[in-house]
Amino acid sequence: MGTIEHQWRHSVTRRQALAGLAGCLAGSPLLRAQQDPRPLKDHRRALGFDEMLTAFDFEPVFLANVPLATYDYTAHGDGSEFTLRRNREAFDWVEPMARPAVDVRSVNTATNVLGLEMDFPILVAPTATQGPLHPDGELGMHRGATAAKTPMIVSNNTSVPIDTIAAAATGPLWFQFYPRQDLDNSRAVLERAQAAGCRAVVVTVDQQATSYERSLQDRNLGGTPRTSARRPGTPRNPYRVPDGRLWYTWPYLDDIRKFITVPMLIKGIVTAEDAALCVDGGMNGIIVSNHGGRSLDYGPSTLEVLPEIVEAVRGRVPILVDSGFRRGADILKAIALGANAVCLGRTTRWALGAYGAPGVQRVLEIFQAELVAAMAKAGRPTLASLDRSAVRTRFS
User: What CATH number is attached to the domain comprising 158?
Assistant: First the structure.
């Protein structure tokens, strides 16, 4: 047999060549395939419950448990996700200034926000439709939060009625409300929440995004992007902005205040000017929030605007903050910059989707332990000792 015949006999067959080409195309970034969002993509064994040591450990388990579309809804932000990324990056720009360490047993994290006694300056943030995360949905979130002695803010967009959630556990609840142009409808929703025992009402004014339209949701084959075109009630404008957005007014807040007998907070404040207007308008509290990066692309992080808002408020009402918190040390930084408490959103969703109510309890207890440890290492035994001298900022 000659050299040419020998090479032909041992060369790749047409079938093998076609199979190789198909595999190459299937994995090509041009087709946007094989873009694995798993943080542990090179290690497929999921951590067990007892191995959950940080909030980040819950996300891969959550991802493995839910459809990709459900994960996408939790994971993504608006537009290019600049704000989503900036929320996390901002924590790198705040450095704790350590004093001599103190005994961890001497650390006291108790606080009071609008009459609500809390062991830690932590609340569960309001997040929508928790039913797809776990069969127990908001009921499981409430049970887990109560077990961790943490108040929960229930979203206006729940999978089950507010009174059913309230009956699932004995822990304190607040209620988050989206403005509705129909005042009678607004009154019915608010009165039902208060009748269920909610101790405060949080009115969201920052959520102006359409539906978090983002191309990466299309890239995950099998995931279904949540776009306004797929929802009932197509907007009557060429910009795909839902009719329920971009109309909020101060007079409306005055109108619904008549139906609210508990403290009323405004969520979605990112400027000193709006913070001052809230105080002057008689609001009882402020939540500094950009909706976890889901409200406005290329916006500032909540941590970097927190100091100017604290300065504008001058201690007249409590200030809470959310967006991007992943560690107890993050909470320390926010308290040092003037926040009274921190709200946790995505991390509690990861925990609920991963392990149900026990997961929620576990992740909250991790945050609590991390906060205590960070305060002890920084030599700050009380929340009052966490003032501006406790951190150095490098906001850009």
Answer: 3.20.20.70
